[in-house]
Amino acid sequence: MNKKFMLFSFVLFMVLIVSMTFAVMVGSVSVTPLYVWKVILSKIPFIQNAIEQDWSRSQEIIIWQIRAPRVLLAAIVGAGLAIAGAAIQALVRNSIADPYILGISSGAAVGATSVIILGAFSFLGIYALSVSAFLGSLLAIVLVFFLSRVGGRVSIFRLLLAGMAVSFILTAISNFILMMSKQEGALKAVMFWMLGSLAGAKWNNIVIPAFVFFVVFGLLWLHYRNLNLLLLGEEAAVTLGVNLQQFRIQLILLVSLLTGVLVAVSGSIGFVGLIIPHIVRLIVGSNYKYVIPISALIGGIFLVWADAFARIIIAPQEMPIGIITAFCGGPFFIWLLRRNNYSFGEGD
């Protein structure tokens, strides 16, 4: 299985690279793949002098400053939401759980709405939206975590109920702020953000999401055995040596940190954390040694293509990426429901 896994991972990685190249190429101004890679390689130290600079300044701006950071952010957000979804599904042993079940998205929406409508954190300039959305998501998970503790222990049942309750409350706060606002432009901006958008991608706001993604990815992959044991049930996991409460807390914090950071830069993009782990389990089974890396690769590929379609489907306007992912996610789950033999963890 290891050789097949390595080969499959390599194929998916190459598909991701090709997808990202295509996504950089398409738009109101088309560029060739040769120029895409020439411009990108010209930014890498030690080999930049070997690249013949035969492209225009406008082509370089389009490729390097506008499209490349957006496509890279799409890959990071897609991969991050996919592994967060896979981890949450193992945590709650529920195949329809996703990263937003803990109220993270609703918390981030309150933060974003406060910035766009009320002008909160305006002293932070271009970072106000990201910082406020992250703080909102952090507030949400702290509330959920506090409400879910019983006798010093985290109850999964209470965790789910607390997540739903906090999500409803925070959504109501966001809607109240929107209803009180008379700014049409601001209302449109908030709705666009809530449906997900990567239009604000810049090189300087990719560093933190990328760093957090790789740290969380590494930690989840290192603990794949514990994730596998969670699927067996609480008693089996404890019997086999898992410190259940400690691991749950670590998992909640890791997933919340990753999702909060990603939502802060991309808005609420639904269904990625729901459908990608399902697809991966259908392909490689439920062993998290394979589920985590394959989810990251397929999640990245999926969102890169979703963002590309969002940019070109109603050009010159842009469609919120959340609409694209919903169009994909809905039919997928209808098909999944029709498969009588599907169950969580199928393929073991």
TrEMBL record:
Q: Which spans are transmembrane here?
A: 71-92, 99-120, 126-147, 159-179, 206-224, 251-276, 288-313, 319-337
Q: Which UniProt keywords apply?
A: Cell membrane, Membrane, Transmembrane, Transmembrane helix, Transport
Q: What is its main location?
A: membrane
**Where found, per UniProt?**
Cell membrane
Annotated membrane topology is: Multi-pass membrane protein
Q: Which family does it belong to?
A: Belongs to the binding-protein-dependent transport system permease family. FecCD subfamily.
- PANTHER family in the cross-refs: FERRIC ENTEROBACTIN TRANSPORT SYSTEM PERMEASE PROTEIN, PERMEASE OF ABC TRANSPORTER-RELATED
Q: What is this protein called?
A: ABC transporter permease
